[in-house]
Batch of 2 targets.
Target 1
Amino acid sequence: MHEDVAEILLDEETIQGKVRELGAQISRDYEDKRPILICILKGAVIFTADLMRSLTIPARLEFMAISSYGNRVRTSGVVQILKDLDMSIEGEHVLVVEDIIDSGLTLTYLVDNLRSRRPASLRTCVLLDKPARREVPFKPDYLGFVVPDRFVVGYGLDYAGLYRQLPYIGVLKPEIYQGSA
Ligand code: IMP
Ligand code: MG
C-alpha cells in the first residue's frame, strides 16, 4: 500500500469485477446501438479505458475536460469547460463516464449542457458515489460503488495530480491535504 494511503476501500479485484459487470449491463442496454462514451478528463481515464474494453458493442470515444478543484478537496461550485468535444452529438446515443459524484454540481452542469446539443439519448456511468455531500440531487444511470464521506484517491482519482496510477481506491491520509481544503 502507498505510504500516503490510510486504508484501501476497494481493491483491484473488486473494482475490476464491477467494471466487467457494468460493461456487460451497458452492452445489453445498448445492444443495437453504437454509443459515444464521453470520458471526463482526467479522473475517468482509467475507468473509461477498462469499461470500454469490457463492452461487446461498437462504441466511440470522446473526451471532455471540466474545471476541477485544483489542489483543493472541496468544490468551488463553479463549473467550466476546459476542453470540449471534437464532434457533434446531435442524434447520437451518449454515455458520460465520470469517476465520482460528490456535490453533484459537475454532472448536473454537464448533463444540462450536453442535453442542449440534442443527443438521441443521454446517460451517465459513474464509478463512485459520495451521497453524503450532495448539494443538488443527481442519480447516475450506472453506478459502481457508494463510498463514505472520505477523500479517496487511486484508479484515476487524484489529489494534486498524484495517485491516479494506484490500482485500488484508497482513503488519503488527512495530513496530506490538511491546510489546503
Ligand atoms: P462534484 O461536482 O462535487 O460532484 O465533483 C465531482 C468531482 O470532484 C469529481 O470529478 C472529482 O474530480 C472530484 N472529487 C470529488 N470527491 C473526490 C475524492 O474523494 N477524491 C478525488 N476527487 C474527488
Ligand atoms: Mg473529475
Note: DSSP finds four helices and nine strands in the chain.
Target 2
Amino acid sequence: MTLATPPDPDLLVPASPGPFAVPAGRVALVVIDMQRDFLLPGGFGETLGNDVSQLASVVEPLQRVLAAARAAGWTVIHTREGHRPDLSDLPPAKLRRGKPSMRIGDPGPYGRILIQGEYGHDIIDELAPADGELVLDKPGKGAFYGTDLQQVLESANITHLVVTGVTTEVCVHTTVREANDRGYEVLVLSDCVGSYFPEFQRVGLEMVKAQGGIFGWVADSPQVIAALAQLSAPIPATV
Ligand code: TIU
C-alpha cells in the first residue's frame, strides 16, 4: 500500500498543538450558524435560557477572517441550523428537549423559531454570505449530518477546514468531530467561536487540541490573518 504524499503547504499557521499546514486550494472557511436566532435577544438561544451577549465578541474577528479568506480565494461555507416549515425534518426528541420558553417552530420576535425562510433563521447582517458562497441548511448540530457537505468538499478537493461560528461546544464541536472522523484536518479559531458559557468555551477549545490534537488544531484569527498577509507580501528585494 502506498500512502498519498500530502500536498506542499501553502501557508503555515502557528497553532496549538503545532503549526497547521494549509495546502493551496485545499482549504475552506466554515462559518457555523451565525444566525439571528442564536445571536439576537429574543431568539432561540435566549429562549433556551442563555445570555446571548456572550456571543457578540465573535462577530468582529469573524468579519476580519472572512475578508482575509475571501481575498485569499478560499472556499467559504456558511451553515444554518433549522427546519422545514412543516417540521418534517425535526425529530420529536429535539422538539421536546429542555424547557425553553418557546419551542422550534413557535412564533418569535424574528418569525418562527429556527424555521427556514424566517428572518431569525438567517445569518446576521454583519456576516452576510457573499454571492457564490455556499449556505448549507442543516437539521442537526453537526454540518455533515443530513447534508451533502462531504460531497461538496470532495468535489472541490478540500481536505482542510478552518472552523468558526457558534456555539463552541455544540454545533462547532459536533462539526469538528464529524469532520475529524471523516479524515479532514480541522483548525478552530478561538476568537471566532463563541459559547453562552465561558467555561465551555475554554474547555471546548482545550478538548479539540488535547492529546496531540485529538480532534484538530486551535489558533486565533490574528495568527491566520498574519500568515495570509505574509503569503501575499511582496518578496523583499535583495541588495
Ligand atoms: N444551544 C446551543 O448552544 N447551540 C445550538 O443549539 N446550536 C448551535 O450551536 N448552533
Note: The pocket of tricarbonodiimidic diamide is lined by residues 33, 38, 48, 81, 141, 166-167, 170-171, 196 (CB under 6 Å).
